[in-house]
Amino acid sequence: MHHRPVNWMDNPNAERVKRVAQLAGRSAVRNRRKQFLAEGPQSATEAIRAHLGLLELSELAAEFWPAGHTVAEVYYTEQLTASNPEAAQLIEDLSTDVFVAKTSEAVLQAMSDAVVHQNIIAVVHLPVVQAGPSTQDKLVGALVRIQDPGNAGTIIRTADAAGADCVIATPQTVDIYNPKTVRSTAGSLFHLPVYIGVDLEGYTHDFQGQIFAADGYGDVRLDQATAAFLAQPTVWLFGNEARGLNAQELTYADHRVAVPLYGLAESLNVSTAATICLYSSAMAQRGGST
Amino acid sequence: MHHRPVNWMDNPNAERVKRVAQLAGRSAVRNRRKQFLAEGPQSATEAIRAHLGLLELSELAAEFWPAGHTVAEVYYTEQLTASNPEAAQLIEDLSTDVFVAKTSEAVLQAMSDAVVHQNIIAVVHLPVVQAGPSTQDKLVGALVRIQDPGNAGTIIRTADAAGADCVIATPQTVDIYNPKTVRSTAGSLFHLPVYIGVDLEGYTHDFQGQIFAADGYGDVRLDQATAAFLAQPTVWLFGNEARGLNAQELTYADHRVAVPLYGLAESLNVSTAATICLYSSAMAQRGGST
């Protein structure tokens, strides 16, 4: 017996389904079509909130994720209403400028990069931003040839939590818009500007503040830095997982700062080190002992 | 043509290979055989270093990983010598009390829990420890119903780096000896005592210091705590990923301490929060502004 699906919402092999799935692949496809995927409730709902103008974005972040021009398409399953009623409500609030469709489980899985889909996928416009990062920010995290999507995403999430003004990424860093990185940001990608392909030499030269290289062999120990020192406007450079920052990149830094290792661990994962560095600066800048 | 492998080192279906692979499965198997797996160079070499007495372990950590009685078996591939000569040398240093064998790639993959094996697997004795955790430690991380192996392992790794005296885990926490947790500790499992099945109520009652609950809704903000406050002997409680600490567990804490969220992120991953909490205490206890 031959069964022919009546429409694409039930057909994992439909052309539309393949086109969405392609956005999970190579960056060339995303760049040509100027779109990427926000999969799962955390990422997709923050993209939709940006689209609906519900996030209190900074002026520069709003250039990345403009209200009314962030989300292109949303696909979801019946299951979403039960598993995440908040996300389902946000979809209801989208007007007709966004293509919204309920699909079968099989179709959403076929679109998804994840091993198990999470009932919602948004197709998001790649940001179109003319200007580069500000030179007058207070706190910035720089991804310098970070290769692991999970690390890049986790650092973006931590930078958001720490209230960083933006994240910058050098040309040889992993593609920020690949689905694994987007998922790892847990929605934070849509909360602050992430500038990609940044010329590190020019940016660090112009930045009006201090440049810290996170460096296990650094001569400044983070636990010996004063709050006043840490409270200055700061760009933190986080280097490649295997090789750290290279000699050239280290010359851009005013200080090489080491996270102290008190136990027997020989190193920290770069995203763990970044968490300690960014939060040390943020708490010195914004906190105050009572 | 029928090919019959001549010995188990080339035969992924050999009984010995299956027995090793079983240790990657359910905790019941590990508990019955009193063994677990340390896979990959980072974990396996630290187990071997403990066995060889090369680590500067605390007295209590040495009860977990006694020299001469930590590693039972080591399996590795030809490839290890090229990819990790240091690990290969450590294997050479093992005496005949450890069963050591070079295997084919297929055999090591069949033994491994990882998608791609990393050329070395050690079979390690489950620690036999009579006493529970000390009540006079300076810094302790507590895994309270943490479910994700990666989070548990990452917190153990950070606790090691922060110089914590030990990590404790409550009965409903993920099995510390499952291969994913062991891998995530990146060798730190063999650096400090990790007490499992700890009665949290009794332990926190007896502990001679302060108990902090890491709690996003806490009334003490980490960035408003003084260094003197953070420098006291402290146990940090880190709760379940989805539900945090429950009402009962919160009563064990002297203070509920929140990591401030300065940006738009609504929460932090528990291992990220634990990193900030443990390092804030460690730097207050051990650091000193210059």
Task: Please give a structural write-up.
Two copies of one chain form a homodimer. With 290 residues, chain A is an alpha/beta fold. Helices cover 36% and strands 17% of the residues of chain A. In chain A, strands 7-6-5-10-8-11-9 form a seven-stranded parallel beta sheet, covered by helices on one side. In chain A, strand 5, helix 8 (149-161) and strand 6 form a beta-alpha-beta unit. Chain A is elongated, with a radius of gyration of 21 Å. The model of chain A has no long low-confidence stretch (mean pLDDT 94). At the A-B interface, helix 8 and helix 13 of A face helix 8 and helix 13 of B.
What would a concise description of this structure say?
By secondary structure, chain A is of the alpha/beta class. The first copy, chain A, is built from 13 helices and 11 strands.
**Rough outline of chain A:** elongated
Structural class of chain A: alpha/beta
Quick one: which chains have the greatest interface?
A: A-B, 46 and 46 residues
pLDDT < 50 stretches of chain A: none
Rg of chain A, Å, rounded: 21 Å
Mean pLDDT of chain A: 94
The percent of residues in helical segments of chain A reads 25-40%
Oligomer: homodimer
Proportion of residues in β-strands of chain A: 15-25%
Strand and helix order of chain A: HHEHHEHHEHEEHEHEHEEHEHEH
- Give the helix tally of chain A: 13
Strands in their spatial order, largest beta sheet of chain A: 7-6-5-10-8-11-9
Major sheet characteristics of chain A? 7 strands, parallel
Distance between the termini of chain A: 75 Å
Q: How many strands in all of chain A?
A: 11
